[in-house]
Structure formats: C-alpha cells, structure tokens
Amino acid sequence: TNIKFDTSALKQFVDENELKEIKPMLNTARDELLNGTGVESEMRQWMTLPIDYDKEEFSRIKQAANKIQSDSKILVVIGIGGSYLGAKMALDFLHDNFYESADSNKYPKVVFAGNSISGSYVNDLIKLIGDKDFSVNVISKSGTTTEPSIAFRIFRQLLINKYGKDEANQRIYVTTDAKNGALRQEVNENNYESFVIPNGIGGRYSVLSAVGLLPIAASGADIDQLMKGAADAQKHYMDTSLEDNGALQYAAYRNILYRKGYTNEILENYEPNLRFLAEWWKQLAGETEGKSNKGIYPSSANFSTDLHSLGQYIQQGMRNLMETVVRIEEPQSDIKIPVTGNNNDGIQYLEGKSMNYVNDKAFQSVIIAHTNGGVPNMVVNLKDQSEYSLGELIYFFEFAIAVSGYLNGINPFNQPGVEDYKSNMFALLGKPGYEDLKNKIEKDM
Ligand code: PA5
C-alpha cells in the first residue's frame, strides 16, 4: 500500500498490553461494520463503493467533465458540509498550490459556493466570473439545505441572464438523491444532466461518489486512478487483521489514547495544499464520533506555519492533545536554497540543501519536541500526492473512523446534532410553520 502507519513515537504513551486489551473490542467493531450487524448498517454503502459503483454513471461523469472543460472557464460547485468538503479537499491535494488562480486554457477553474451565507463572498465570486463562460454543479442530497439553495438561485439566474434558459439548462449539473427532494424535481422539470448520491452514503462518506467525482474530473484529475487507489485500499483494509492493517491500528491507538484522557486530536501536515484534507477529516471524525456526550474532538494544524502560533500550546498547554501527522514522502516538487555566500541571517549552513530536506528535519524535530512535551504522536506516511494515493488515504480514514464509531458504542452514520440550530434559524427568518418557536424565542430574547 502507499500508506505506512507509524506508531514508533507512541512508546512512552501506550503499552503493548493496551493494544492487546483493545483488540477484541476493535475486532467486534470491525466485524459489525463488515457484516452489517451494527446500527444503521444500511449507511455502509461507501464501504464497497470503490468497487461496486455505477459504471454507466461514472462514464457520464467523465463526459460531463469533458463538456465543462470544452465550454467553461469556471465551474461553480455549490454545496456544503459533506456535499462540499471532499471535492475541495481533493482538488487542493491533487493540484499545485496556486491552481485556483492559474489561468489554464485546458481546464476550468473550479470554485465553490453555497458553503457559507456570506453575501460578500457571492459578490466576489460573481466579479471573478465576470464575462467568462461558466457552468454550475449543484450538490445536495436533501435539495433543501439553506446555503446551497440560496447560492443555486443566484447562479442559475446568472446563467439564464447570460445564456438564456435553454443553454443555461445545459450548463447545470445536479448531484442529488435518485428519487426524492427538491433538486430531483427540478431535474425532471428542466432536463438537467444529473447524478446520484446513493441512499446508503452519508455526506461525509460521499467523496468517491458523483459528489466528489464530477468536480475532481472537471479539474483534469484522473478519477480512474482515484478509484483504483480506493479499490485496492478497500480490499486491503477489509481483509487484513490488526497486525497488517494501518487503518485498524489508527482506530485502535487513537482510542487507547482517548480513554487515557487525550481527548483532542490534531491532524497535521507539512504541505499547504493538505489544509483541506484536515477540514474534510474534521467533518468525517467530528460528525461520526461526537455524540452521546463523548468523542475525540478533531482539530487541525498546518506546519511549519502553526508551529509559530499553536506550537506554544501544543508544547506546553493542557495535556489532553494527541497529534496525527499526514506526511508526504515524495512531495510534488522541491527546490534548492540558493548559494549566496552571505550569512547575515545565520542560515548559510543550509545553502545548497533542498527545502524538502529542511521540511523533513522540521517534522522529525517536532515529533521529538512534542513527544517530550507529553503529546502522543502518530504518523500516516503517504507515498505521494497522486490520485491513487489520495484514493487510498480517503478509504483509510473512512474505514478507521467508522470502526472507531462502533468501538465507542455510538451510531457512526447519523448526525442529529446538526439540526438543532436550524429550527431556531428558520424561526428567526420567519419560515412558515415555525411561528410558535419564533414567538417563544422573541419572548425569551
Ligand atoms: O454530513 C452531513 O449530513 C452534512 O454535512 C450534509 O452533507 C450537509 O448539511 C449538506 O446536506 P445536503 O447534501 O442535503 O445539502
């Protein structure tokens, strides 16, 4: 596999015996996942998706991506939460750091909307589009989520104003439920090209469905390789036992640590275009595990940047932290530090060395420092930033976090807590049906 999970820095924190102790419980959780004997087992369709996906739809996704590449300079991807983070994470991970501002002739710039309620953001995006040709991919399983619904209205109107209704309809790609919801109804009425978010796949597990695949393919990335990496990972992580299975080991160790009071996990990287990998992972872990008044709190840091800010807390703050580093073994490129013969800044000794060499020494030094400071460290070594490796990494985390959920006795596939604020917001906005709540809130204010 392209992933090597390394726990060598955990020696002072976890006893071998503790791994032995948790193994039977871990295996039970794994078996619940594999055999479908755990709660809400119908939501495990992501588990076999890399192999059992809709091949006809997959080729339509590629055709749609080709059409977008041929007639659009910009693709506006509208969605939030699980209908946003996977594609954003993958695009950043696979392309160079300034991809979004590169004016490439071959591939459209992929931008995101409907992931906040900021009017300024939408105005800025409209300005960015200017008179450029563009298309829209709206992604929503329910079809009624407030943020993407607002954005879709705005950008559909923009398309209609620019191209007229008929051509606008050809530039709208809808990813939603197969049968239900407002968006499916609009697909039927307007003949939009459409793709399916399968019933048995929740938002945070959906990146390898059309939700992630269309934006990723439109950006010029190779979705065949992405699926191949995930398919190989599926076979490996479903079939091997703890001793050879990095995903199970990750689930085991983070839960051993959690039970000893390390309740906050920081996902870290040393490559700026992995920032959204952590954002995606935070939703995956946080929505899966944070319920019944328990769960590891997922957070993130970007190194070496945050070593100059959060680094202080990690080194000496409250000792409830654990760190998981995603380390890229072969970064996308490298550059040498020029030889100048000048030592005013005290770094002449680094002249002629490569930046990746220095970055790696930073990585090693931080592990030693933080471990000595009382923070357990785990490392996910990933070979490179190819589509294949990303496919494997996605599966690694999805599998590990789902097992982790069953291990903690919660439902890994629901997210009831994200609904609570919405009723209040609907009441305050005056949505029909929320009058009583509105009165109650206003009386209490
Ligand atoms: O994981 C989840 O369920 C959420 O993050 C959803 O993905 C998010 O709210 C978007 O929902 P929808 O796709 O229905 O618009």
UniProtKB/TrEMBL annotation:
<dbReference type="InterPro" id="IPR001672">
    <property type="entry name" value="G6P_Isomerase"/>
</dbReference>
<dbReference type="InterPro" id="IPR035482">
    <property type="entry name" value="SIS_PGI_2"/>
</dbReference>
<dbReference type="InterPro" id="IPR018189">
    <property type="entry name" value="Phosphoglucose_isomerase_CS"/>
</dbReference>
<keyword id="KW-0413">Isomerase</keyword>
<dbReference type="InterPro" id="IPR046348">
    <property type="entry name" value="SIS_dom_sf"/>
</dbReference>
<dbReference type="InterPro" id="IPR035476">
    <property type="entry name" value="SIS_PGI_1"/>
</dbReference>
<comment type="similarity">
    <text>Belongs to the GPI family.</text>
</comment>
<comment type="pathway">
    <text>Carbohydrate degradation; glycolysis; D-glyceraldehyde 3-phosphate and glycerone phosphate from D-glucose: step 2/4.</text>
</comment>
<keyword id="KW-0312">Gluconeogenesis</keyword>
<feature type="active site">
    <location>
        <position position="422"/>
    </location>
</feature>
<feature type="active site" description="Proton donor">
    <location>
        <position position="287"/>
    </location>
</feature>
<dbReference type="Pfam" id="PF00342">
    <property type="entry name" value="PGI"/>
</dbReference>
<comment type="function">
    <text>Catalyzes the reversible isomerization of glucose-6-phosphate to fructose-6-phosphate.</text>
</comment>
<keyword id="KW-0963">Cytoplasm</keyword>
<protein>
    <recommendedName>
        <fullName>Glucose-6-phosphate isomerase</fullName>
        <ecNumber>5.3.1.9</ecNumber>
    </recommendedName>
</protein>
<dbReference type="GO" id="GO:0004347">
    <property type="term" value="F:glucose-6-phosphate isomerase activity"/>
</dbReference>
<comment type="pathway">
    <text>Carbohydrate biosynthesis; gluconeogenesis.</text>
</comment>
<keyword id="KW-0324">Glycolysis</keyword>
